[in-house]
Structure formats: structure tokens, C-alpha cells
Amino acid sequence: MLIIDSKDCENIDKALKKYKKKFEKARILLQLRSRQSFTKPSVKRRTEVLKAVYKQQLASGKIEG
Fold it and tell me: Which family does it belong to (predicted)?
């Protein structure tokens, strides 16, 4: 649960802006999407390895991205 301390003199727009920033930093939306369906640990590991290989190939210049 995100809590925003708003002062009496603070505008509601500023409080909303603070809330949105905290929401993005907490990555709540990503957690919700990942929890919608179960992925096996082996599948997670495989995708992480494939991403790392792709990034390494981009860095070395083998793939033009």
C-alpha cells in the first residue's frame, strides 16, 4: 500500500504526481502482471539466459539492433 503524505497547503495535482512516481518505482503493475499466471522456475531461468545471450551479442556487435 502506497502512502503519500500531503500537507494542507499542497495541491492535489502535486500529490497525484507523487503517487504516480511512487507507483512506478514500486513496480506494482509489473508484479500484478507476473502473478496473473504461474511460470515455472526453469522457464524463468531459460528466458533470463536467452536475454543475457542476446544482450552480450548486441554488445559484441554480432547483432545489429
Answer: Belongs to the bacterial ribosomal protein bS21 family.
